């Protein structure tokens, strides 16, 4: 019976379950009144039963296992009654003719008066004692009260303290949950901003690659033009050299002719050809410095310096971003491509709207 009695003690009021007894989803039992006290402490804004306002329910934690119990709009009245426990309580009360803890109280005797049971409580010393101690003993000048009265009062205080502690733990758990959600939000926002930051720098790299390709094309065109001219001169000089060499060879062969009459028949024509060939003026050679390509050098120091000033800009809104000039600078760029070799003009797209910092472009 003692073991059965321990199983029928409510963890809130520390007394035997009072009907109706409700069973929680975690299979622990509570007096419905105690369950309602804990629920009300955890949900102070919840409307009591019978209120005309429709409530959305609430939640509290089981005092035995800390399992979270979620209730609907009926509150604790929506929990299922444990009829088995109620029947066991009825059988226990029928089989037991003594009040709870009576056996323990019968054996609790006064140390000073061994034949006297402890039946009063000294309010001054805050200890239980017997009647003889009040009349003749150490507590004769103290204020006392009946033991059952103080017993019920302190059990009620302890029950209220447990309910408050449980409610406080629920509030702490709610704060922890909120801070965990804040951590998750920080991670999500950081991941999104990292993606946007990467996209913007990739856009900058794309603009630089595009501009580099344009400048390389301009350099390649100039190279081809100069090479075509010089190679044309090389062919012209080569043709002249080949013709002159053949004429020299013919003249040498003619000079080796032993017969004077035959030599003189060809000499006049060769002399005229040699004279004409020697007077031919070839096209001019490329002017000094023609091979230089220094005019295609670019200065990027100031652009690199501006890129180093890129930083986050706090307080940028989404609407301001929509009004930014595109990074590729297709609109509003001035001058032909040969006149802007130092890099594109435009603005770097900024990050998403919100209070967080966004990328500030130096190209403004």
Automatic annotation (TrEMBL):
<dbReference type="InterPro" id="IPR013083">
    <property type="entry name" value="Znf_RING/FYVE/PHD"/>
</dbReference>
<dbReference type="InterPro" id="IPR017907">
    <property type="entry name" value="Znf_RING_CS"/>
</dbReference>
<dbReference type="InterPro" id="IPR017903">
    <property type="entry name" value="COS_domain"/>
</dbReference>
<dbReference type="InterPro" id="IPR000315">
    <property type="entry name" value="Znf_B-box"/>
</dbReference>
<dbReference type="Pfam" id="PF13445">
    <property type="entry name" value="zf-RING_UBOX"/>
</dbReference>
<feature type="domain" description="RING-type">
    <location>
        <begin position="10"/>
        <end position="66"/>
    </location>
</feature>
<feature type="domain" description="COS">
    <location>
        <begin position="255"/>
        <end position="313"/>
    </location>
</feature>
<protein>
    <recommendedName>
        <fullName>Tripartite motif-containing protein 54</fullName>
    </recommendedName>
</protein>
<keyword id="KW-0206">Cytoskeleton</keyword>
<feature type="coiled-coil region">
    <location>
        <begin position="205"/>
        <end position="233"/>
    </location>
</feature>
<keyword id="KW-0862">Zinc</keyword>
<dbReference type="InterPro" id="IPR042752">
    <property type="entry name" value="TRIM54_RING-HC"/>
</dbReference>
<keyword id="KW-0221">Differentiation</keyword>
<dbReference type="InterPro" id="IPR033492">
    <property type="entry name" value="Trim54_Bbox2_Zfn"/>
</dbReference>
<dbReference type="Pfam" id="PF00643">
    <property type="entry name" value="zf-B_box"/>
</dbReference>
<keyword id="KW-0479">Metal-binding</keyword>
<dbReference type="InterPro" id="IPR050143">
    <property type="entry name" value="TRIM/RBCC"/>
</dbReference>
<dbReference type="InterPro" id="IPR001841">
    <property type="entry name" value="Znf_RING"/>
</dbReference>
<feature type="region of interest" description="Disordered">
    <location>
        <begin position="313"/>
        <end position="364"/>
    </location>
</feature>
<feature type="compositionally biased region" description="Acidic residues">
    <location>
        <begin position="318"/>
        <end position="331"/>
    </location>
</feature>
<feature type="domain" description="B box-type">
    <location>
        <begin position="105"/>
        <end position="147"/>
    </location>
</feature>
<keyword id="KW-0175">Coiled coil</keyword>
<dbReference type="GO" id="GO:0030018">
    <property type="term" value="C:Z disc"/>
</dbReference>
<dbReference type="GO" id="GO:0008270">
    <property type="term" value="F:zinc ion binding"/>
</dbReference>
<dbReference type="GO" id="GO:0005874">
    <property type="term" value="C:microtubule"/>
</dbReference>
<comment type="function">
    <text>May bind and stabilize microtubules during myotubes formation.</text>
</comment>
<keyword id="KW-0217">Developmental protein</keyword>
<keyword id="KW-0493">Microtubule</keyword>
<dbReference type="GO" id="GO:0030154">
    <property type="term" value="P:cell differentiation"/>
</dbReference>
<dbReference type="InterPro" id="IPR027370">
    <property type="entry name" value="Znf-RING_euk"/>
</dbReference>
<keyword id="KW-0863">Zinc-finger</keyword>
<keyword id="KW-0963">Cytoplasm</keyword>
